[in-house]
Design goal:
- The structure holds 2 protein chains of 2 kinds.
- By secondary structure, chain A is an alpha/beta fold.
- Chain A has 2 domains: about 5-250, Rossmann fold, CATH 3.40.50.970; about 260-395, Rossmann fold (3-Layer(aba) Sandwich), CATH 3.40.50.
- Chain A is built from 14 helices and 16 strands.
- Chain A has helices at about 10-20, 35-45, 60-75, 85-90, 90-100, 125-130, 140-155, 185-195, 220-230, 235-250, 275-285, 305-310, 335-345, 365-385; strands at about 5-10, 25-30, 55, 80, 105-110, 135-140, 165-170, 180-185, 210, 255-260, 265-270, 290-295, 300, 315-320, 350-360, 390-395.
- Chain A has a 7-stranded mixed beta sheet with strand order 3-2-4-5-7-6-13, sandwiched between helices. In chain A, strands 10-12-11-14-15-16 form a 6-stranded mixed beta sheet, with helices on both faces.
- The longest helix of chain A has 17 residues, at about 365-385.
- By secondary structure, chain B is α/β, with parallel strands linked by helices.
- Chain B has a single domain (about 5-305), classed as Thiamin diphosphate (ThDP)-binding fold, Pyr/PP domains (Rossmann fold), CATH 3.40.50.970.
- Chain B is built from 12 helices and 8 strands.
- In chain B, strand 5 (about 185-190), helix 8 (about 195-205) and strand 6 (about 210-215) form a beta-alpha-beta unit.
- In chain B, about 50% of the residues are buried.
- Classes of the chains: A alpha/beta, B alpha/beta.
- Chains A and B meet through strand 3, helix 3, helix 5 and strand 9 of A and strand 1, strand 2, helix 4 and helix 6 of B.
- Strand 9 of chain A pairs parallel with strand 2 of chain B, so a sheet runs across the interface.
Chain lengths: ~400, ~300
């Protein structure tokens, strides 16, 4: 175990601190609320000579990801950070970064997409990017955002993967919420991430490589197959890196954080900061004798389908909470729900699963909402009937 | 700085033969001239467009130098990322200094239109890179659609000549002036017909300690509607009519690179290309006079800037 320092940091500063310790060769970013504190804090590290990074203060998020692609193809470690409309603006290049197999790490501070303009938390930004070919890790706390960013470097650069990773934290709730957390020593982070040597580099002028050639129908399909194969290898790497991180920090990471799931008949599945409220509610419900548990996925891409099936075996009714809507999907459900349903169906499980949309545009969620969810799940197990496949929490109808 | 043909002839080609450009296209001539003029090692970025698709259809490549394509609008930003990485790794002692030059190529669509913000941003940040616009005055790769570089009166597929509208109505965007207004160390306009001038400009751009930009006139016989063997003649005429003046702005000082002994009337140039054919119909003929007046005014403005 290495020495760590206890500090009070909000999620954005925790992310910036992780970036400082990772010390990327290039960081290209554009400020956007609520990510601003990350890029500002990092800029100060640059100004104070606390990093070796070449910081590119670009003129837009699209340019941020464009510069990241050029920098990563030039063979070094590259990071960026964004949120909401910023992620939407860089969309085209988010796909290109993944498809060119460039191990870029991006901190995303989740925020609602416009319109209407709203700077507060929901997951519509990163969930919209779920098919872009990036590994996605969701963080509940500032500590997790910090830990996940450090691990993301190792995951992205793993020779079997070479896939970019986005690390999410909830805007304002985590991003601006001060927490007591542990910061590792710089040397511990440096040793953990190691040095990066790209297999191919634009700067290797003695061995010139063409990056970003175009494909006809005779090669494009094979390239996409290689990409999806790499993604299918990611889960093992994520778990291995998470275990190894435990050895230096005392905080091991896996695919889920499971709470009270061992004998659970009812389960709640929720991402990121809301898991904190959910855990408190589950604890209270358990005290009342309700056999309910909580499953907080850390990894959304690749989607841990088999792991969900294993974790939910024996559970009679499941509530999946989504902080975004997949507009036009079955009953206007959310993406996490749809994926969980697909996993259970493909495994032949007949578990009853319902969906709750919550927290859009930063709407608060309270313990009484979880009490309502638990009550609904109890009704479902008692009657065997689902009254409403998709419901809303904390919404004025 | 002197360009010696004998030396050039002995240099290895950076753009290899066997690419897929149309016969008569000016772009491979320009790319070859520029890459061979630069004596330092190069890393090349390229925007989506004719030059990109003609040179890098997987699994083939026409480049003997490192090359990257990212997207349509962001060649300047992509190369700025590579240049930043180079500076970072050299400064940290992770790789040796190799005196690399970073060059981005983009067509007029990528440069005048969709990528202008990206180019402007990269210029303002001061990356040391050379941006070359291969200006064929329309979106040729997608089938001759108008761009903001398309001249007034030219017919394109999205500004066609009809019975009422005579092709593109607007004047072309004065992009070289706009780039010069960024006060970068080196800005130039060039044409492959005066190859020695073009190659010298490429060397000056490579020597500039900061961003540089060369706007190169690149005839497209498919879009301009002229015979494939007329490329260089038509380019020469564009220069001799003062439609495409050759000049440079070195550290803020404007300098004319070439002054035609006799300024030829624009009509001589317009009639070489099918894209202007409709201007010779009676109802549109007055536009030729307007174009001439516009060129005269622009030329006088340029002369004043160069004399000052």
């Amino acid at each position: 175990m290495v020495v760590s320092t206890k500090m009070a940091l909000d999620g954005a500063h925790a992310a910036a601190r992780a970036m400082q310790q990772i010390n990327p060769d290039v960081l290209a970013a554009y400020p956007i609320t609520p990510q601003t504190a990350i890029v500002q804090t990092f800029s100060q590290y640059v100004a104070d000579g606390e990093v070796d990074t070449e910081f590119i203060a670009v003129e837009s998020e699209h340019a941020a990801m464009s510069a990241c692609v050029g920098a990563a193809a030039a063979g070094g470690r590259v990071m960026t950070a964004t949120a909401a409309n910023g992620l939407a603006l860089m969309w085209e290049i988010v796909y290109i970064a993944a498809s060119m197999r460039l191990p870029i790490v991006m901190a995303v501070v989740n925020r609602a997409l416009s319109a209407p303009l709203n700077i507060h938390c929901d997951h519509s930004d990163s969930m919209g990017a779920r098919e872009a070919g990036w590994i996605q890790l969701y963080s509940e706390t500032a500590q997790e955002a910090y830990d996940n960013l450090i691990q993301a470097v190792r995951i992205a650069e793993h020779p079997d993967l070479l896939l970019p990773v986005m690390v999410m934290q909830d805007g304002f709730i985590t991003g601006h919420g001060l927490e007591r957390m542990e910061v590792l020593e710089d040397s511990a982070v440096r040793d953990f991430i190691g040095t990066y040597k790209a297999k191919y580099s634009l700067l290797d002028i003695d061995h010139p490589i063409t990056f970003g050639a175009w494909d006809m129908y005779d090669y494009y399909f094979e390239h996409k197959r290689q990409q999806t194969d790499a993604m299918s290898k990611a889960m093992k790497v994520i778990v291995d890196v998470g275990e190894e991180f435990g050895k230096i920090s005392g905080r091991s990471y896996g695919i889920f954080d499971a709470y009270a799931m061992d004998d659970a008949e009812l389960a709640i599945i929720v991402l990121s900061s809301t898991a904190g409220t959910a855990r408190t509610s589950v604890k209270e419900l358990r005290a009342e004798g309700v056999k309910i548990g909580l499953l907080k996925p850390r990894v959304f891409r690749p989607f841990p389908a088999q792991e969900f099936v294993d974790a939910l075996k024996g559970v009679k009714a499941v509530a999946v909470l989504d902080r975004s809507i997949s507009f036009g999907a079955m009953d206007g459900a959310g993406p996490l729900f749809l994926e969980v349903c697909a996993a259970l169906f493909a495994a032949g499980l007949k578990t009853k699963v319902v969906n709750y949309i919550y927290g859009l545009g930063g709407r608060d969620i309270f313990p009484q909402h979880f009490a309502q969810v638990a009550s609904d799940l109890q009704d479902i197990t008692a009657t065997g009937k689902v009254k409403s496949l998709v419901s809303y929490l904390g919404l004025r109808e | 700085m002197a360009i010696k043909l004998k030396e050039l002839a002995g240099k290895p080609e950076r753009l290899a033969p066997g690419h897929r450009f149309c016969s008569g296209c000016a772009e491979p001539i320009i790319i070859r001239q520029i890459l061979n003029a630069i004596e330092e090692p190069v890393v090349v970025g390229m925007a989506t467009g004719c030059a990109e698709v003609a040179t890098t259809m997987f699994p083939t490549t026409a480049y003997n130098v490192p090359w990257i394509h990212n997207a349509f609008e962001n060649a300047a930003t992509t190369i700025s990322g590579a240049e930043a990485m180079y500076r970072s790794l050299v400064r940290q002692g992770k790789i040796p200094e190799r005196d690399i030059r970073f060059i981005a190529f983009g067509g007029d669509g990528a440069t005048y239109d969709i990528g202008l913000q990206f180019l402007s941003g990269a210029l303002e940040r001061g990356h040391r890179f050379i941006y070359v616009c291969l200006n064929n005055e329309a979106y040729m790769n997608t089938g001759i659609q108008r761009s903001s570089a398309t001249p007034r009166g030219a017919a394109t597929t999205t500004a066609p000549a009809g019975s009422v509208i005579p092709g593109k109505v607007q004047w072309r965007k004065p992009l070289t002036d706009i780039i010069a207004a960024h006060r970068i160390p080196y800005v130039a306009q060039a044409a492959p017909s005066r190859w020695r001038d073009l190659m010298q400009k490429a060397r000056k751009a490579a020597a500039a300690d900061g961003p540089s930009f060369i706007n190169v006139y690149a005839s497209c016989n498919r879009g301009w509607r002229h015979p494939t063997d007329a490329t260089i003649d038509i380019t020469k005429l564009a220069v001799d009519t003062c439609y495409w003046p050759l000049f440079e702005v070195e550290n803020g000082v404007w300098k004319l690179s070439y002054k035609p002994r006799e300024k030829k009337p624009i009509e001589e140039w317009l009639k070489t290309q099918g894209r202007f054919r409709h201007l010779f119909q009676p109802q549109f003929r007055h536009i030729i006079g307007e174009i001439q007046a516009h060129i005269d005014e622009e030329w006088e403005n340029l002369l004043k800037k160069c004399e000052a």
